[in-house]
Amino acid sequence: MSAPLIEIRDISVGFTGKSGATLPVLRNIDLTVKAGESIGIVGESGSGKSTLALAAMGYLKRGLRLLEGSVAFQGQDMFARTRTELEKIRGGELALIPQNSGQSLTPTLRIGAQLIEALRLHSDVPQAEFSAKAIELLGQVRLPDPAAIMTRFPHELSGGQQQRAAIAMALAGEPTALLLDEPTTGLDVTTQAHILELLRDIARNRDMAMVYVSHDLGAIARVCDRVVVMYAGEVVLDGSTRQVLKAPVHPYARGLLASIPRLSDPRLPVALDGRPPAPGGAGQGCSFVDRCALAQEQCRSRRPVLERLPSGESVRCFRHEHAEDLSLTGSGAIPAKLDSDAVPALRLDDVAIRYNRPRLLDKLLGRDSASVATVDGIEITVAKGETLGLVGESGSGKSTILKAVAGLLPPSDGRITVAGGEALAPEVEQRSPDHLRRIQLIFQNPDDSLNPRQTIAQILEQPLKLYFGLSGDALHQRSAEILERVRLGAHYLDRLPSQLSGGEKQRVAIARAFAADPDLVLCDEVTSALDVSVQAAVLDLLNDLKSTQGTTYVFVSHDLAVVRALSDRVAVLYQGRLCELGPSADVYATPSHPYTEVLLGAVLEPDPDTAPTLSADDVVELSPPVRGCPFQRRCPRKIGPICDTDAPPWRYRADGHGIRCHHTIEDLETVQRKDVAERCA
Amino acid sequence: MLRMLLRRMFLGATTVVIVSMIIFAGVEMLPGDACTAFLEREAQGKLLENCREAQGLNRPAVERYIDWASSAVRGDLGISANGQKSIAELVGDRLANSLLLAACSLALGVPLAIFLGVVTGLWRDRPVDLILSTLTIFAMTIPEFVSATVLILVFSVWLGWLPGIVLTSASAPAAEFFPEIMLPVLVLTMVMTAHILRMVRSSVIEVMAGDYIQMATLKGVPYWRIVFRHALPNALLPAINVVALTIAWLLGGVVVIEVVFNYPGLGRMMIDAISDRDLPVVQAIALIVATVYVCVNLSADILTMIANPRLRTLHMRRG
Fold first, then answer.
1. Residue B181 resides in a domain
2. How does pLDDT run across A32-64, given as a tens digit for each residue?
3. Is residue B144 part of a domain?
4. Which of A297, A550, A622, B216 is buried most, with the most CB atoms less than 10 Å from its CB?
5. Domains along chain A?
6. Structure ipTM over 0.90, yes or no
7. Per residue in B103-139, pLDDT tens?
8. Residue B85: inside a domain, yes or no?
9. Is residue B42 part of a domain?
10. How far is Cα A268 from Cα A265, in angstroms, rounded to an integer?
11. Is A23 helix (H, G, I), strand (E, B) or coil?
12. Residue in A488, A432, A435 with CA at minimum distance from that of residue A459
């Protein structure tokens, strides 16, 4: 094997805290990357994984300092180089693919200009051939119509296309090593799977080394040979992908794996209690000691060293021999299933929602300007105590439906009724206080949904005052009680949201919804902004509340495994139209709608032995087709012209599982079974 | 985009119409009218009646408003109450003088403010930034008449370099205002530079901390290329609107400076007209200033739209 390409030796990086003390973000990290090797760095937010990747380029974010150690690229110290030398290496031999390409591409420059800039700086291509080369690069990252993409501004591309453009830019300098900072976070499952396949191919064909930073073990499993697990600024485990994902010898890695919901497992994932220490907050002992089930006396008093095991892994744990005692997969609670007494809690009758209203001028002239509705023909009944999952990619209309139920976006057609057959007023201003109380919404990001200047007490007291007229001691007591119910102590009442961790904030948001004693709780991607271990805790909490309160949920998520973990029934949406609706076990099994099949195939499991099946292109459609099946343009099982012209019929099975497709259920079952058999063979 | 443009222009015109109504109604509500001002102590009995009859002041207000507004559109702003002169003529000179003052201040102030704003933004928290930022606070907080007086004291009384007061008549050609105009320009530039500088500075800081600047750095783009190609086109977008507001302020609101330096601009004419109770002139100037505000802000919005690809393409798609 060749000499190491990137050699990080014992680096520590820190910043000066408010107290004047130096707080470390990275502590004594060693990492070697050889040519052509792909290494994954995993950890939760705040673990220092991105800082480590950027340090490999000799770059530290504003405020951070190199405390000790060295980073060498091709044998030369990156922090000792001059600015001109660094400019030559960065984007040339060593390229970065950023986390959020939408924000990492300069908004005022066309894609072509940015690509050509990279070529001018880092390649030998003669000036006359810049455009041709740039178009070639865009073609290599499989962007359709590269010549047109050249003239676009970044905001005119979809998330997946932006990410591909960023990859093309990184490839312009023919790098020998590629650093990837969460390159697929925030993308749809199918897009993510496609991008990862692309990266795998490129790395193989060009023999590039890759350092892949992610919190997503599924993505890491797909592209990396070796995995480094980071916790609180330290490397706690370093081994081959197989070792780390199949039999990790560090308790944190095991906890992390157990907190990931799996498609194949109907049980809830297990949460890791507690939270990592803040920078500088790790005491003398092991940084994981407070959350570790195996902790002993020595773990508190001494910091374990990174120990190399005979099997080839390195682990920072005194008790790694006992790590196998800890479970690896979700052995959490079985999701609560309530006997739905068939009383509908929510009914959507042929609901359609449009964003673009007909123009005044068109109305006056009597022109028919009605465009295709964003969401159309939604016919769903949710029984009392049932959890309905809504899944689909971005743009599938799942959040739009939630908004309509909440009254934030009046439907243009159809009726929404609640228990007892009472119709809901389309707009929230016209709804009675009782209706408002009965339907509560929890948002994706608690940072945005909680007022940063109100204490937790003020946040919780609002619904209590408004709906129940509580005051004084009763009010205080009730708030404390509600907080207790989401497993936060009463001492949180006086705090501000900024003093809480992400998971705690989301619990407060949940508590606020439950303070109204609602019948129906709408959850809009409530776990997407959270780390996996925290996500597991929130799922567990929601499940708990469901079994004790008998609440009905409508649960929206782009993460199919999360939806599976909590839902009794699942509705699959594409382009604002229902594709499939049925009990979750049935929807996640064969036969399924071709779109569900595509979605499920693209899910990445944290298991190096599974591979996603990519059966449809990840084209982004801006509006649904006017006629026929909404999935006609991407469907891998398209029959023919009938799909373009006729709306597909619902086909039901005995258990109420419905698929909306021109294929009969039997046909779908036969072809899908056959495909699975072929793949296994 | 065309649709958007027309919409904006229509809204702008509506604003001017509404403002003109408010101005007219406001003047109408004041006790007295052009005739009482003109006749002064003799404003009573038959004389007043005759005057009102001659000026058409006895007609209903709505009729007079329509009359006034429609002739204003044609450029005829009526006749001043005391001088019986055409207001358009009187105001024309003054407007040209105000434009001259504004143009000089802008030509000096805007490039200076942008340059210093970028410098302070890039060298944030370094000595350059600290010194300049402190100076801007002074420039913004000291009232104009104080700084104007101090400058007159220093440059014309002590040093004797520049005239401290404008003596040129209102109708003189532009060239004759030099060097008298220099001190007022200096004062205006100071205030204006301070405002624009702070805006540009914070905008540069924000953009330089952005993800795409980090990306450009890690793509190996040389520092100055990052500044000029990646950062400034984005950082200067918000400056367009501040500059527009400054222009509007320069054309209508620099009353104090014009009075201190005896500069024959619109602002001073307004003050004079108010103290003379020359209501037609007050009306006319208020209308001009309002129109300038609307026009300048409209052009700033359009410029921003052209300079920002996000807005530009968005409206292209819609329109």
1. yes
2. 999 989 999 998 888 889 999 999 999 998 889
3. yes
4. B216
5. 1-93+176-224 (3.40.50.300), 104-174 (no CATH), 344-572 (3.40.50.300), 578-680 (no CATH)
6. no
7. 999 999 999 999 999 999 999 999 999 999 999 999 8
8. no
9. yes
10. 8
11. strand
12. A488
Region A593-618 average pLDDT: 85
- The radius of gyration of chain A's CA atoms, rounded to the nearest angstrom, is 26
Cβ-defined contact of A95 to B221 (cutoff 8 Å)? no
| DSSP-assigned letters across all residues of A64-122 | -EEEEEEEEETTEEGGGS-HHHHHHHBTTTEEEE-S-HHHHS-TTS-HHHHHHHHHHHH
Supply the pLDDT for residue A102.
83
Do B99 and B26 fall into the same domain? no
Chain A: which residues have CB within 8 Å of chain B?
A: 54, 57, 59, 61-62, 83-84, 86-92, 95-96, 98, 100, 103-109, 117-118, 121-122, 153, 155-156, 166, 169, 173
- Same domain for B272 and B160: yes
CB atoms closer than 10 angstroms to residue A111: 27
In this structure, which amino acid lies at residue A404?
A: A
CA distance A13 to A230: 14
Strands across the sheet with A375-383, in order? A375-383, A344-353, A413-418, A422-423
Residues of B in contact with A106 (CB under 8 A): 212, 216, 229-230, 234
- B113-134 burial, b if ≥16 CB within 10 A, otherwise e? bbebbbbbbbebeeeebeebbe
Tokens representing B122?
A: 């890039």
B196 and B277 share one domain = yes
Give me the helices (H) in A157-275, please.
159-171, 189-206, 217-223, 241-246, 251-258
Q: Do A96 and B215 touch (CB under 8 A)?
A: yes
Q: How many domains does one find in chain B? A: 2
Residues of A in contact with B218 (CB under 8 A): 54, 57, 59, 90-91, 96, 98
Using an 8 Å CB-CB cutoff, list chain B residues near A103.
Answer: 210-212
Which helix (H) or strand (E) element contains residue B263?
none
